[in-house]
Amino acid sequence: MYRLxxxxxxxxxxxxxxxxxxxxxxxxxxxxxxxxxxxxxSHWLAGPVVHEHDISQLDYxxxxxxxxxxxxxxxxVCTVYLLIxxxxxxxxRTFAYVLFVFSATLPGLALPFMDATTAGGTWLAIVLSGCxxxxxxxxxxxxxxxxxxxxxx
Length: 153
Prior knowledge:
DUF4306
């Protein structure tokens, strides 16, 4: 029951963060000089952006992450938390392995942001790296607790 309440609260925070990030990112429509640098999804899906209607909705999140990183960061933290919460239903050993996979994957997601020219990109790299450290620590604690329980049996 406690996990279900956590899931509900974090899911509501995730949804709110997604809406605010989407809204904040819509400011890209007013910044045509950023279209070349902040619209990777549009470039990938349809080629160069010429008009504002060429911009993908996903690029709103990229723009928000670059220039207003608070809610995109909260969105990332909530996503990682929801994934950890879902994985916690697995047995202890598998849960620990999933955490270690997260701790290895998240720094890879942070790499493109390491040399970011905006404060938002740097902030996202820090958030992703922090989430990776938390996952590694939780994985180590889970393995330790699993080993202690097996030793007592």
